[in-house]
Write a structure and sequence with these properties.
Elements (H helix, E strand, L loop, with lengths): L1 H10 L3 H40 L2 E4 L1 H5 L13 H9 L4 E15 L4 E9 L1 H8 L4 E5 L9 E5 H7 L6 E7 L5 E13 L3 H4 L2 E5 H8 L6 E6 L5 H11 L4 E4 H4 L1 H39 L1 H9 L4 H36 L3 E2 L9 E2 L6 H27 L3 H5 L3
Parallel strand pairs: 3-8, 5-7
Antiparallel strand pairs: 1-9, 1-10, 2-3, 2-6, 2-9, 4-7, 5-8, 6-7, 11-12
Helix pairs in contact: 1-13, 2-11, 2-13, 2-14, 11-13, 11-14, 13-14
Length: 402
Amino acid sequence: MKWLKFAWLNTLRNRRRSLVTVSIAALGTAAILLAGGFALYTYQGLAQAAARTTGHLIVGTPAQFARDEDVPLQHGLDGVAALRSRLLADPAVRHVLPRVEFSGLVSNGEKSTVMMAAGIDPDSEFAVKGPFLQVTAGDVLQGGRSGEVMLGEGLARSLKARPGSGLTLLASTTEGALNAIDVTVRGVFSTGIPEVDKRLVYTDVATAQRLLATQRVSTLGVFLSGMDAVAAAQSRIGAAQPALQVQTWLDQATFYRSVKALYNRIFGALGLIIGVIVVFVVTNAMAMAIIERTREIGTLRAIGTLPGQLMRSLALEGLVLGSAGALLGALLSLGMSVLLLLVPVQMPPPPGRSTGYPLQIAIDPALYAFTIAAMLLLATAASAAVARRTVNRPIVDALAHV
């Protein structure tokens, strides 16, 4: 504690220089924490969105994930009702949602266009996933009402369709024949991705199976109690259903993996640059302080102070400056994070989307602890490196320094 007190008093000998050093260290720490918190919030949001879209686990035949289909549902699942019951017996499983994916044409009688369609269990789908679609007209699908569809906003505009309009869906059956059924538009929605809204159609599973002339489904989405249950549940379900393949949400979250890889590179480089700047600032401040006190250091050496003791004192000065800057930066980052929760700020739509998203910063204790510790280590190491040459200088040379 005595040496730490000496270090604190030495930093106060030139308050202006110490203030500048602490301020730059604080801004650097805050920048790293804010950037890292933004990246973590983005990762968490994308992970939850991906898991909510597909399910925490996706159960299908191995061929469904490995090979393309020659006809719809060629690699689909049979015996869905019994399989759902077995999956729901797992203690971590909360819901199992069937999904029928197919493509074809949708027509209003005068114009036909390509569609990418999905058959879902309406009541369970919207209850489990929540408001994953923005309904712009009409209403969502309801269970027990077969022969209804929801259209993407762009597709509805292209077909001049609105709630209550009649359309025709055309697709190949599982036998390769062409089939068509008449449907009624229940609602119009937006996913926030204009290119998807130009093609996407939702209908119920029964209507999709009637169109494709099958009782199969493409996959089953398994929703668990939480993200932390994914690995254990995948192992249990995989062991219980060896003929099937169980993928996690991460296996199908291509967008999540791409964004995370990009952000890791961007914010990793940003953190490295800020760390280098802090090191140079602390090094410069300590170099100036040590040069000014060269004769003082020589005097201390002459009266018996060991080089190691001087190194410790000067390194502690860097520690004091770094810790003050790191703690101040952490408080600044924490304040900004809380402020964004109280005063929402909307980010502009990212490329390829039509809707923005709220700007929020994740408050992660591990990130704060790692960043503060890194700042302290860098500041202490920089100070020790600068002090080493001077404290080992011959006493006569140090006393003669001007």
